[in-house]
Amino acid sequence: MDFKNKTYFITGASRGIGLAIGKKLASVGANIVIAAKTVEAHPQLEGTIFTAAEEIKKAGGQALALQLDVRDENAIQLAIEKANHHFGGIDGVILNASAIFLTSTEKTEMKRFDLMHSVIVRGHFVTVQQALPFLRKSSQPAILALCPPLSTLHEKWLAPYLAYSVMKYSLSMMVKGWAEEFKKERIQVNGLWPKSLVATAAVKNLLGGPEAIKRSRKPEIVSDAAFEILRNRELNSQIFFDEDIILQVGKDLQSYAIDPTQKLIPDIYID
């Protein structure tokens, strides 16, 4: 696998896991398209598409910052075309953008339901749809989604926050469907999910705050796992846990802990 001058379109790449994956791929010479909403600094959300672009360049790759709301299919089409024009192709799509509201059926406002569906399901379906003509021209086309393994699908996970779970497992099903649909075209399609909480804005602002951050891992555990998946062209139609990939390549899990003295908090859908 040669990542030099290959182009990866990453949704939600202005911070967190998306940015970490972008920096990892940039470190081996890849071009990164930062397709995300944030163009101005926000008190609770670190980073913008422009600060992310600077980090990508420092990591060793080329960057294209594109403001994108993945709820807008016309904007997705335009962003994909801009990325192709700028870098001369698209080799991979990383489906990372998300929206999260962990609410019961009774307490889930329909505008929140529609937002999660528009970002996680519809937005990523359109992204893959629009990227397909360019992926087909690549020598190593790939789609990687941040979604839980279907083996974790269980009533106890569905019941507490059904709406969010419906969206994330829908993305998991799309991974399986795309892998079979595009198999003859050699488009590699896989998924990836963290076994523990990862220190992101979502954890800081919605899932426990500073105390939860202490018991989380760095985003680099996901980006390193993503890199290992993308570099192995034999992998297809699988949804992996980040920890399992890291252990397989012999890396030390402790190095990813925010605070190695703290007990990790399992991610959603993990027993």
Give an overview of the whole structure:
The chain is α/β, with parallel strands linked by helices. It has a single domain, classed as Rossmann fold (3-Layer(aba) Sandwich), CATH 3.40.50.720. The protein is 43% helix and 13% strand. The chain contains ten helices and seven strands. Helix 1 (16-26) runs parallel beside helix 2 (49-59), helix 1 packs across helix 9 (220-231) and helix 9 (220-231) packs across helix 10.
CATH architecture: 3-Layer(aba) Sandwich
**Residue windows where pLDDT falls under 50 for at least 5 positions:** none
By CATH, the topology is Rossmann fold
What would the principal axes of the Cα set say about the shape? globular
What's the structural domain tally? 1
Number of helices: 10
Helix-strand string: EHEHEHEHEHHEHHHEH
What class do helices, strands and sheet pairing give? alpha/beta
Overall pLDDT score: 95
Assembly state here? single chain
Tell me the major beta sheet. Answer: 7 strands, parallel
* N/C terminus separation: 34 Å
Residue share in β-strands? 5-15%
> How much helix, percentage-wise, in residues?
40-55%
CATH class: Alpha Beta
Give the key terms.
271 residues, alpha/beta, Rossmann fold, seven-stranded parallel sheet, 7 strands
